[in-house]
Amino acid sequence: MNFDPGSINERLAKNVFHTDDRPHISINQELARATGSGKRLVAVCPAHVYREESNGDISIESAACLECGTCLAVADPGVLHWVYPEGGMGVQFREG
C-alpha cells in the first residue's frame, strides 16, 4: 500500500491559526539592517512571515508563524523579540 502525504503546501493548509491581539514577534529594524539578519529571516522562514520592504525594513506577519524557531536560529542577538502566543493562540497543527 502506498502512502501519499501530499505536498507541503497541502499539508500546511490543514493547520489552524488563532490570532492573538498582540503580535508575538517584533524586530529591531536598525540592528536587523546592520547585521544582515533581516535578509536571512526573509530567506529561511518556511511560513514566509518576514518580507523585505522597498525601504529595507522587514515587515512581519506574525499570524502566519509556525512557531518553529528557525528565525531565532538565524537572527543575531537582539534583532528579534519573540515570545510564544498567549495560551490557546497561535498555530494548531492538524497534520505533522
UniProtKB/TrEMBL annotation:
<dbReference type="InterPro" id="IPR007859">
    <property type="entry name" value="ETF-QO/FixX_C"/>
</dbReference>
<protein>
    <recommendedName>
        <fullName>Ferredoxin-like protein</fullName>
    </recommendedName>
</protein>
<keyword id="KW-0249">Electron transport</keyword>
<feature type="domain" description="ETF-QO/FixX C-terminal">
    <location>
        <begin position="41"/>
        <end position="93"/>
    </location>
</feature>
<comment type="function">
    <text>Could be a 3Fe-4S cluster-containing protein.</text>
</comment>
<comment type="similarity">
    <text>To ferredoxins from P.putida and C.tartarivorum, ferredoxin I from A.vinelandii, ferredoxin II from D.desulfuricans.</text>
</comment>
<keyword id="KW-0408">Iron</keyword>
<dbReference type="InterPro" id="IPR012206">
    <property type="entry name" value="Fd_FixX"/>
</dbReference>
<keyword id="KW-0479">Metal-binding</keyword>
<keyword id="KW-0411">Iron-sulfur</keyword>
<keyword id="KW-0535">Nitrogen fixation</keyword>
<dbReference type="Pfam" id="PF05187">
    <property type="entry name" value="Fer4_ETF_QO"/>
</dbReference>
<keyword id="KW-0813">Transport</keyword>
